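Risk register update: the risk that structure generation would not scale has been downgraded. Supporting records follow, first protein first.
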Amino acid sequence: MSGQRRRPQTSILSSACDTNRRPLHPWNLSIEETRETPSSQLIFGRWADRAVVLKTFKPHSDETNSADVIRSFDGKGMVRVIDRCEGALLLERLVPGTSLVDLALAGDDKSATGILAQVIETMDSPPPPSRCPSVEDWGRAFDRYLQGSNESIAKALVEEAQRTYLSLCESQTRRRLLHGDLHHANVLFDATRGWLAIDPKGVVGEVEYEIGAALRNPIDHPELYASTKIVKRRLDRFEETLKLDRHRALRWAFAQAVLSAIWSTEDGEDSRHVLKLAEVLRRF
């Protein structure tokens, strides 16, 4: 969970309370560290002599169904939920918790890609939880953008990506529960269990969809992903391990890059890096 902003302990503790200021969680933790992400607040500590992470969700978080998603994977390539209550999850803590970002930045992108592929392979085919969104649901953002007044992303590019996305949605074959945001920062190393995924969004679609996030990360380092050579090398490894349809994975990755840019624009974030990748993928 690297790259997250640290926050005072009191802000995390207060967010884990209801409107009457009663604790929502029944756990008495020995607190070691607190952090914040765009969608959640985290307490790292110990509970019953076990290393844990207490995760509470911010209003309008896109991870509120993550407990059901994590439990669906049942520890297969995924961090485990220890306990839960309204608004909070108690998770096993991955130690030392080194992310794949560090491996990629150290110049070993080949190994990082191989680990991502192995995690995806391990996460194969659990039953999706009820109310889990589909890739079709996520694709509604194309219409939302096209019907709005924002023109920071060329409408012609968005329309092309939407056509590609809808065509892929209609022709999917083996659909399964996917992580939905499986990239380098969301795969951590645990000394006991190995490399594991964290922070799933949860979406139902074919495995070729899952590759998109991995191809556009580490997001702040386009020199590591936005080139034909790197995309080809990464796809070679994913195809070898997962036996996926390479052409469909490429088309999903292009459409998702534009979709990701739309979401970034809606959140007031910079989308230039991911749009650079979209242009690279468009030329394959």
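Supporting record for the second protein:
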Amino acid sequence: METSPESPAALNETRTARQAPVLYRPRNYRLGVANGVLYILSEALLDPTLVLVAFLSHLTQNPILLGLVLPIRDGSWALPQLWVSGRLQSMRRKLPFYRWNSVLRIAAWFSLALAINFIHDPAWLLVAFFLTFTIASLFSGMSGLPFLEVVGKTIPPNRRGEFFAYRFGLGGLASIGGSFLVRWLLDASSPLPFPYNFGLLSFMYFLFGSIALMLFGLVKEPPDAQVLPRASVLDQFKGALTFVRIDSCYRRFIGMQSALMVAGCATPFFAVYVQRQLGGPKEMVGVYLAVTVTTNLAANLLFGRVSLKNGNQRVMALAILAGLGMSGLVLALFLAAGPLRLSGLTASYLLIPVFILYGLRGTGIGVASNSLLLEIAPASSRSLYLGFYNTFIGLVILATGTSGVALSLLGFEGLVAVTIAAHLLALWASRGIHPAGEQVGPQNPGD
């Protein structure tokens, strides 16, 4: 394996002098955006914070199980990536690895849809759900690193924020229609009873997600000029620790993202808490989803422009401030609900601004985080940077799976207070991130 730089000065030289030029191809840009639009639409139909938690609440009232959905999805996505990095760095092209894992992901999604539609015993359905959902998330993690590698090789750094903004923005627009479908199917007057209402959503998730993966598989990826030997997980881990030690931008980025993961651990309980403690109507889940995706649409227009003019660091700071407002507002709402004798319906409507801020937070992080990471990582060590970061964050996300335990120990108000502190820590860490950009190669308008 290539020897890691031994000083910050050597790292800066590596980052600026050895960055690979990026050849911009409009066709690749369009395929990447289309992939994002369809994938985000599919995710909206089985949104883990709202739809999947609502589905599981029909099967169990255990807060630990309800709190596992996001950690399983995000943690399983991230954990395999350090291992993948050691293999991927020896491959001149990353897309063949992405395509193979896409086949496995599609098969897992299909199995999940079958389980929801055809297993009627609640206990077995719980087992089948968590098994297929975890397998799908793991194969998603195997695809995550080659996806980001291809983006880093085909999208210039000055357009990455815009690229992710278009993906999220147009995906949010498509998801608005999906949110109305979710509300109609989950309403008490839905023509499909449980679990077939969720079953239809799961089959649509499978359909749109499969098309999204196949579109990205059509991207034309240039080969790497240089590759590193295949490395073991232990070698990758040692090399990554060296970069963490000498690269303050990388170190602060990891700290910021870790804090943001902790800061989001209470989000799945917002709607559930209103429904259980205050008697709010369950069909408001569709309203919250519509509010979130509409906010995403508007926020992407805003954050895409901010990224082009002011950089991704500014976008990240705005996203963290939105998260602070979200946590502060929901804490104030639940502290005031008792003294003000708020009804469940009133509290449900007062929760709408919380999901507006939630949408701003999520969109800003989505636009800026991967763009910042690709700017921080030297091209020659990109697989290692991305793989170690995602694996480490996966551990953090899995740790947030104890949010159900924290809810039992601290109460809802205590858990939200923890998220406020985590947002403040993320804001502090974000101020020290100042990455260098990559060279931009000539455009190829004929592609």
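Residues 206 and 218 are 19 Å apart (CA to CA). On this basis the risk owner (M.S.) recommends closing the item.
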